[in-house]
Specification:
Number of domains: 1
Mean pLDDT: 78
Helix content: over 70%
Order of helices and strands: HHHH
Largest sheet: none
Strand content: under 5%
Distance between the termini: 36 Å
Structural class: mainly alpha
Shape: elongated
Length: about 80
């Protein structure tokens, strides 16, 4: 069963937000970047990769293209 578009956006947003959550958690003393970066971000990144791979044939308007655009924009900020 394929995800509808809104559910897809919410999942991708939540997974991408984890990178920011790592910083906020460190700032407020909820967790260390090391623990969060080693145990939470790798599975989230792997899941985003799987989502992009499974939707790779949908073209520029597809869901994989949105993940790729997010990666590019994130890299521009660095």
């Amino acid at each position: 069963m394929r995800m509808n578009r809104m559910a897809f956006h919410l999942v991708v947003f939540a997974l991408a937000l984890l990178s920011f959550a790592r910083l906020l958690g460190q700032f407020y003393g909820l967790w260390t970047m090391h623990v969060f970066g080693c145990w939470v971000l790798p599975p989230a990144t792997a899941l985003l990769t799987v989502i992009a791979y499974r939707h790779r044939d949908e073209g520029e308007g597809g869901q994989a293209a949105e993940v790729k655009r997010g990666v590019r924009r994130g890299r521009e900020q660095v």
